[in-house]
Q: What sequence folds into this?
């Protein structure tokens, strides 16, 4: 009898999310991927590796329909009876807009906070509500950022959202210690990674972001981690026996 690990991952169209999905492929895993654009490479590779996959093409800035999305997701999970674990990785994020706050349009501020903070909160609420009575291994990994703690000009939206995600993670940890079948939870700062988020920040003008040259230099000197390395380290944390003991992990380096 095969016992399955169901793993829900947001933001799998590229970067860390794509690398997480690829490295988590296994015959005993059922991946549930969510991203704004469908990643055919991930779907094809999962089929090749005989890893169960359901792909949900969904824009997480549309927070009002996340409840329905999770109803659809758990319909897929309910098809299996021999569940060993249900994991959730809140990875989807956006860095932009990078600009002093007074120069940002209201709808761009709303979009950033929707994706970076409100979506993970609503997703987590749905996950916990639907797994409340399940006596299985439950883990929530929130991909945070050192920007939650180390502040730079022109990143107020992103930093505020990530600081909120850290506080949310700590709150959930406290709540889950009081329930019958608790989920373990951790937020992780993955470090400086060579992803679309980094290339976005390097394309911002110095007028909008005074530190743009420093970020360009890091890239040129090869000091950014690869998404593959980062995903490998995050998976080590997720699957570790100690998962959840440290609620906010500020470095993946070991």
A:
């Amino acid at each position: 009898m095969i016992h399955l690990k169901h793993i829900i991952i947001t933001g799998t169209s590229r970067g860390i999310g794509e690398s997480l999905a690829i490295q988590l492929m296994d015959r005993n895993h059922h991946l549930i991927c969510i991203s704004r654009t469908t990643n055919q490479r991930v779907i094809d590779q999962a089929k090749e590796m005989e890893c169960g996959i359901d792909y949900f093409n969904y824009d997480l800035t549309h927070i009002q329909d996340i409840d329905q999305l999770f109803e659809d997701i758990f319909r897929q999970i309910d098809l299996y009876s021999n569940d060993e674990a249900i994991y959730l990785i809140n990875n989807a994020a956006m860095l932009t807009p990078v600009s002093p706050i007074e120069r940002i349009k209201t709808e761009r501020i709303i979009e950033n906070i929707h994706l970076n903070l409100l979506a993970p909160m609503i997703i987590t609420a749905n996950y916990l509500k639907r797994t409340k009575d399940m006596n299985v291994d439950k883990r929530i990994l929130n991909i945070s950022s050192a920007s939650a703690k180390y502040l730079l000009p022109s990143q107020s939206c992103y930093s505020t959202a990530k600081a909120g995600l850290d506080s949310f993670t700590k709150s959930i940890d406290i709540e889950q210690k009081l329930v019958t079948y608790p989920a373990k939870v951790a937020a992780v700062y993955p470090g400086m990674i060579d992803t679309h988020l980094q290339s976005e920040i390097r394309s911002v003008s110095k007028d909008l972001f005074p530190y743009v040259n420093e970020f360009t230099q890091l890239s040129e000197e090869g000091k950014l981690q690869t998404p593959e390395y980062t995903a490998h380290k995050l998976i080590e944390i997720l699957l570790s026996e100690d998962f959840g003991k440290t609620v906010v992990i500020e470095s993946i380096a070991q």
